[in-house]
Amino acid sequence: MGNSNYTINFKIEGGDPVSVTGYSTESVLDIAKRAGVVIDAPCGGNGTCGKCRIKLLSGEVLGEQSAHITELDASEGWRLACGIKPASNLELFLPASAQAFQSRIRVTDFSGVREKAAFDDLRASLKALGFEGDCGIEKVSVEVSEPSLEDAAADRERVEAALVGKLGVSGVKFSLFALRRLPYALRNGGFKLTLVLRRDADSDTITVLDALPEDASSNCPLHGLAIDIGTTTVSMLLVNLETGDPVTAASGGNAQIRYGADVINRIIESAKPGGLERLRKAITNECLTPLVRRICVTAGIEPEQIYRVAVAGNTTMTHFAVGAPGEFIRLEPYIPVFFKTDALSAHALEFPVNPGAQALFAPSIGSYVGGDITAGVFASMIYDKDTLSLFVDLGTNGELVFGGKEFLMSCACSAGPAFEGGEISCGMRATNGAIEACSIDKGTEEPSLSIIGGEGEKAAGLCGSGLIDIIGELFRCGIINAKGKFNVEGKRVVKDEYGGHAYIVVHAADSATGSDIMISEVDIDNFIRAKGAIFSAIRTMLASVDMPQEAIDDVYVAGGIGSGIDIGHAILIGMFPNLPIEKFHYIGNTSLSGAYAMLTSNKAVKQVNECANSMTYLELSSHPSYMDEFVAACFLPHTDASLFS
Amino acid sequence: MGNSNYTINFKIEGGDPVSVTGYSTESVLDIAKRAGVVIDAPCGGNGTCGKCRIKLLSGEVLGEQSAHITELDASEGWRLACGIKPASNLELFLPASAQAFQSRIRVTDFSGVREKAAFDDLRASLKALGFEGDCGIEKVSVEVSEPSLEDAAADRERVEAALVGKLGVSGVKFSLFALRRLPYALRNGGFKLTLVLRRDADSDTITVLDALPEDASSNCPLHGLAIDIGTTTVSMLLVNLETGDPVTAASGGNAQIRYGADVINRIIESAKPGGLERLRKAITNECLTPLVRRICVTAGIEPEQIYRVAVAGNTTMTHFAVGAPGEFIRLEPYIPVFFKTDALSAHALEFPVNPGAQALFAPSIGSYVGGDITAGVFASMIYDKDTLSLFVDLGTNGELVFGGKEFLMSCACSAGPAFEGGEISCGMRATNGAIEACSIDKGTEEPSLSIIGGEGEKAAGLCGSGLIDIIGELFRCGIINAKGKFNVEGKRVVKDEYGGHAYIVVHAADSATGSDIMISEVDIDNFIRAKGAIFSAIRTMLASVDMPQEAIDDVYVAGGIGSGIDIGHAILIGMFPNLPIEKFHYIGNTSLSGAYAMLTSNKAVKQVNECANSMTYLELSSHPSYMDEFVAACFLPHTDASLFS
Predict the structure, then answer these.
(1) Contact between A332 and B149 using a beta-carbon 8 Å cutoff
(2) What three-state secondary structure class fits A620?
(3) pTM (2 d.p.)
(4) pLDDT in tens, B453-482
(5) Residue range(s) in chain B whose domain bears CATH number 3.10.20.880
(6) What is the rounded distance in angstroms from the CA atom of residue B133 to the CA atom of residue B597?
């Protein structure tokens, strides 16, 4: 039959149409990728996740019908983009939901951020320990004599002399950006200007990053950007470097999700020709650029006024942001290209900020314990405690750190993205519309819900904390059993389209999506495996140092699970050990708060690196008891009920 | 009438056609510039040079006929692109000659370079003075243990430890480029690899610029690039940094020429919206990129194997290469943005070499004495002499330096581009086809010519040294008088199309161009003003230190005038003072050889900067006697004949 080519028209809900040539040998998903048409495909296009739904408006395709598409939907033209290839010219409709990560951008004044309280606590701790105000970015006012035929020194040499005189430094460098701006700043400010400079930490030299006429500089505070590059979500904080105050917060879906929901699928994509560049640009061009644009508009500044960047992310995300090959992370013996990087040039990284800015990355300690965790351990302050703490980061996958001043031991478990609503049919992140808490009346089996966004907000899905509550309540009320299977007599229990059962949390008429919000046995099974991975990791780590769970003085819970987490329910379902509830503390997105600390303090950068140096890594898969522990933990709450009595 | 838009089709000789929308308000030259269609326009588009000839194939235009276009040519459709605006859709033919600078690229194995002898002398001097082999770029072989589950350090940390152990340095940085390559280099070389690194001059740290598997590294010598960015011509030398040997030489026209032949027109263009970027990209994208591509193909290396760059150019060219605004250079009090720059990132400059490479620029000392002169003064070694030397750089314009160990005084004169064949109807650079020497038989008035390229090469035009010879011989034979006007009875003297007279050097039948090669009174007048500018500058400089011309012990002649220069003729026409011929030395393109010295030696970089620090600048225009001296020098040889008796 050969390779025919066709015209493929994508009609994109809420966007401009895109037309591209497609070949009979490639899937519609691949054609879309090539054309820059974004379709969420968490599984990376292997047909398992069922998210890349598109509607065939006209034309012929080849490919089998997916089990993820009901007969009714199929009759209306719905298909999975990864499962069909063109057999004629095509007209396709792409619903906004297929581009979910793009619509997930939220930008808020920091005072409206849900985690503000946890963040304010962090700032108080940082201040108490002296991690504050030493980021090395400064503003200096300089006045120079006006040049004349008799005094014809060049602009740079003129300003350099004034700086050396004023600051007593031995050397002055100019970034290319500052050099290019310098003559206008001098002349527009009547030879009075404000220079933004970076002091080198270890030497007596400075680098000028920007030059502004004095008039303009009064309303120009120095800004920095803290970034958390999560596998699912990219979050950032714009920070006033002079006061340390967060100004604006923003987050959006990680655009890499169309290459896979998990790091493994993305690493596989990165190893294809041009793949690493695609993944790198998905971060810089599709996440950082739009988020920074929005954050700057909200804050009323230009991206060039961002003079320092600190980034935390897991090892793979850090590699892709830097453009370093990630492929050896997934091949035994699982070796990253780097644990630590030098301060890197924002311009070289193509980060959309002042080109002279440096980007600092939180260090990794292994392929599966990254900068998000070292930054988080610093932000949790457990490294500085005489007592023993357990730090649990529930993002996409789960990472744990146990210890204190004496030792720090870390491990990573393959919990998957369930805590962030991933791989759950009605799952979503802890943002507006998410059901973040739930109780169920044992008699009526009716749920009472708490929805993020407050009064009048309709439920759109379930975030991690909501899932814990619902599963906990379904179990408490006997609507599901210890294996997570439904009592089919349940009042809101229905048969789902795949032959299993599900509980209707919100009826279609009351939901934001117009569909029932349900939790199915498949969802519950996914979640039980996620919580089982966490619990068994805790057990294995304690066993490796021969300690009982009572040795844990405090548990710090971090990550995208949401501040609504009900620890009682989490213990009830066997996710956390049965310790007094007052020992548990939810401390928010510590990857981002650690990046914030690095952004505002060079001393904090040093300390994060020291935390990394002192952390050991426990490889769970090579630990003999881990698999048994995991299997035992895949019940509600556990096969060994005595652990939760 | 308003602003109408039309479709403008450019048919380009030897190139692909280009179609673009043009407006009735813009000249065809401006439309071409916008479309990226290159048309030489040395005057910058003000109608004076007559070089932007295009042929109208179909369509209507508005605009008066140029005096530069003959009736016959006009009837065939020839127009000046700068003088016409579209009044309908147009079809235009663009001859290769309109893109002359693009066809001027020449790349040669260095052993074939005409100036090799002068260059070999320079290398011997550099070696004698210890300016050799200290560029700080090194190759180091490292072998590391293969990683395993038990020894899971990251690639970077593994190699860093080996480097610290081997070299005893305190810090190791990796360029982004090296970091991205590192894992492949390690695994493709069986964990044996060769690292290219730069030692910081002042500290105990190194930066890794490249990582290569050991197998590949044996045929990979380290290369650097010396660049002379001239107003008319960009020249470069690819150098083996391990031996100091030049490998390949290349030169091409400066693509900025379409914005003007002289720096003033280009500065005016640079101040327009987007102009500075156009001028910067004309250097990086249109000169450096094609030249480096050609030079690398010839040498059999990749551009990423160029690890260090040294650049010399006049102040304006340096500003444009760096992307710094040049507009204040031409406005009183004529202040550049910088005299010296830090070592700049090749990646930030968009130079087509290893992105971790640094580019070093020779320092300027004023708006009109640039890095080409400080590099040249170093290469001439006059700064190191107990005797007094005169250094004369005859490029586009002329710059002079007088002095020795005790003092160095510099000045610049507006000689224009005549020494490089500019503003001369049949002028050209000293490359193949150029008439570089000439004698005329007084009886027959027939010329004997020496043409660059040797046996069988047909004459294409006149380079600077050829012009000196022909004007000298025409004067000696009485074919022109002291004012440069022809004896109309001369045997080869004809009336030219502008009403003046001209001498036919080569008849159309024998020339490479198929047209007569002539020298006209306008040409001679241009040349006399150029030589007068040089001679009067020498006189004024000597007068300012109250010295006679006999105080000059040596005269070093540098620049694009060509190695064929006949000093006897140059004295005869009153270009140089009447000193014994053995005091004159032609030393080639010293801007390039100074850049070569900086490329191969950090000590040389320091010395060039010291030369710059010790040079004073004499502003001729503010010197009372200069204008009188200039007027007096605009004769053959001079109004004061006693100076040449």
Answers:
(1) yes
(2) helix
(3) 0.87
(4) 878 888 989 989 999 999 999 999 999 999
(5) 134-217
(6) 10
